[in-house]
Amino acid sequence: MTRKGIIELENMEFHSFHGCFEAERTVGNRFLVYMYIETEVDKPSLSDNVKDTVNYLSVYETIREQMERPSHILEHVCRRILEAVAQRFPQIAYARVKVSKMAPPLGGNIERVSLTLDYQNPEIQ
Q1: In angstroms, what CA-CA distances link 45 with 28, 65, 73, 89?
Q2: What is the bridge-based pairing of β-strands 29-40 and 92-102?
Q3: How would residue 21 be classed by pLDDT, with cut points 50, 70 and 90?
Q4: pLDDT confidence of 16, banded at 50, 70, 90?
Q5: Distance of CA 37 to CAs 19, 20, 68, Å?
Q6: What is the mean pLDDT of the segment spanning 24-48?
Q7: Would you place residue 1 in the very low, low, confident or very high pLDDT band (cuts 50, 70, 90)?
Q8: Phi/psi of residue 100, each to 5°?
Q9: How many CB atoms lie within 10 A of CB 82?
């Protein structure tokens, strides 16, 4: 029996410089990132060895690296995050990332604007 595990990294907070406006790219803004990962967990659940699993510290570091690279739109940020995580961990079957820009400068009182993007590994059913 193959066991599917779910790894979630929730409410990672970053100060990043994503946005279409010059001020956003200069001053920056607060962003929250949520990452959901589905992967097989038989081997790591038996071995108790971090080398056999999707190491969530490495996932966090990969996300942080992408959040440090400015983009104009959230779609670009999400795509880069998913591609970087999938490349680093080819055993991921499915992943979803949500990036939220807190208090976006849209001319009103808005808590956040978010974009969610999915990844399905074509080699894993």
Answers
A1: 40, 28, 38, 17
A2: antiparallel
A3: confident
A4: very high
A5: 26, 29, 21
A6: 92
A7: low
A8: -120, 130
A9: 20
Whose structure tokens read 């962003």?
31
pLDDT of 105 higher than 90 = no
Angle between helices 56-67 and 74-88 (to 10 degrees): 150
> Are 112 and 100 spatial neighbours (Cβ–Cβ below 8 Å)?
yes
Query: Which H, E and C letters describe the chain, residue by residue?
Result: CCCEEEEEEEEEEEEECCCCCHHHHHHCEEEEEEEEEEEECHHHHHHCCHHHCCCHHHHHHHHHHHHCCCCCCHHHHHHHHHHHHHHHCCCEEEEEEEEEEECCCCCCCCCEEEEEEEEECCCCC
The position carrying tokens 């200069």 is 26
pLDDT in tens, 62-96: 999 999 999 999 999 999 999 999 999 999 999 99
Token pair 């990132």 is at which residue?
33
Sign of CA dihedral 76, 93, 55, 4: positive
